[in-house]
Design goal:
eight-stranded mixed sheet; 11 helices; about 25% helix; elongated; binds pyridoxal-5'-phosphate; pyridoxal phosphate binding; pyridoxal phosphate; PLP-binding_barrel
């Protein structure tokens, strides 16, 4: 059997969620499960967190329905709101919570013909400029939703654009705008994503909304102590399927992007971009072979990649390999392809088996 798999350690997911809850003892915890639980399997994640999380958040109605059909009873928030008015009927019937992300969604809720009120969160655009109403219209929106029999408005929320950049002023300004706009409204408040949960306690408010940190990597600069204690949930594992010696001057892989500077030993690993390891990863990015770091050598293929194991103790076919996980955070691997761990996790393809332990 091909040795490539994403082993998911659910006990660690619970421990990471408990750590987030400890950082924000006065807040409720909404666990963000969009993109199939950041590639870990949204249903498995929701089931594992059923006792820890007070609510869940997803991006689409399909994702929310999948959770309901798996028996998840907690509130489930649709972070991007309804995409069209026709979704509201099912949102209400499934007892999901919808985000009012702009004037259109506000009007859709008012005009809908529903069997009962739909739970709503009101999103305010405090500076990210992606979704949300103008904070100056928060009171008017609250009044309209309060007057509508279709809406049960429960909370106001906003989202930070640069919360992980701890020395910058934007997050503080966003928080100020949010608090000013909601000051007199009888609503629960929510702003904190993972970096804010870890390092900005003043943003915790009534509901924290961590995603990335639950999966066990820090979104902060790696040396920042607030990220300590998180444990990688996904172990992206494979194995060595070939080993060869090559002379100095020979190139490895498509396009000859890596050339041996000395006689070298090359190990071939049964994982490639078809399994979720980015093709754009730079030569030299670490791969763990039998627990030791070896540099990627040569372009990543669809089903395989190659590493330079010249400096490792003898490597054999069948030796275990970790592409990311313990001792090799996904965020560090992501830097080798100019992206973040978020993208690598969310992009894990269905071909890579998820094995739950
Ligand atoms: C994705 C998302 C989150 C979670 O962000 P993380 O950085 O993964 O913690 C929170 N709120 C909203 C609106 C989001 O889209």
């Amino acid at each position: 059997m091909r040795p490539t798999r994403a082993r998911i350690e659910l006990a660690r997911l619970r421990a990471n969620a408990a750590l987030a809850a400890e950082k924000a003892p006065d807040s409720r915890l909404m666990a963000v499960l969009k993109a199939d639980g950041y590639g870990h399997g949204a249903v498995a994640v929701a089931q594992a967190l059923a006792a820890t999380a007070d609510a869940f958040a997803v991006a689409t109605l399909d994702e929310a329905v999948t959770l309901r059909e798996a028996g998840i009873r907690q509130p489930v928030l649709l972070l991007e709101g309804p995409f069209e008015p026709s979704e509201l009927e099912e949102i209400q019937a499934r007892e999901l919570t919808v985000t009012i992300t702009g004037p259109e969604q506000l009007a859709w809720v008012e005009a809908a013909r529903l069997r009962g009120p739909v739970a709503c969160w009101l999103k305010l655009d405090t500076g990210m400029h992606r979704l949300g109403l103008d904070p100056a219209r928060a009171r008017e929106a609250w009044e309209r939703l309060d007057a509508s029999a279709n809406a049960d408005l429960q909370a106001a929320c906003t989202h930070f654009a640069r919360a992980e950049e701890l020395d910058r002023p934007e997050t503080g300004r966003q928080l100020e705008r949010f608090l000013a706009a909601t000051r007199d409204l009888p609503l629960a408040l929510s702003a904190a994503n993972s970096p804010a949960v870890l390092a900005r306690p003043e943003t915790h408010l009534d509901w924290i909304r961590p995603g990335y940190l639950l999966y066990g990597d820090t979104p902060l600069p790696r040396e920042h102590p607030a990220g300590a204690g998180l444990a990688a949930v996904m172990q992206f594992e494979s194995a060595v399927i070939a080993v060869r010696e090559i002379p100095a001057g020979d190139a490895v892989g498509y396009g000859g992007s890596w050339v041996a500077e000395r006689p070298s030993r090359i190990a071939t690993i049964a994982a490639g971009y078809g399994d979720g390891y980015p093709r754009t990863t730079a030569n030299g990015t670490p791969v763990l072979v039998k627990g030791r770091r070896a540099p990627l050598a040569g372009r990543v293929s669809m089903d395989m990649l190659t590493v330079d194991v010249t400096d490792l103790p003898p490597v054999q076919v069948g030796d275990p390999v970790r592409l990311w996980g313990d001792d090799l955070p996904v965020g560090e691997v992501a830097r080798g392809s100019g992206t973040t761990g978020y993208e690598l996790l969310a992009g894990m393809p269905a071909r890579t088996p998820r094995v739950y332990t």
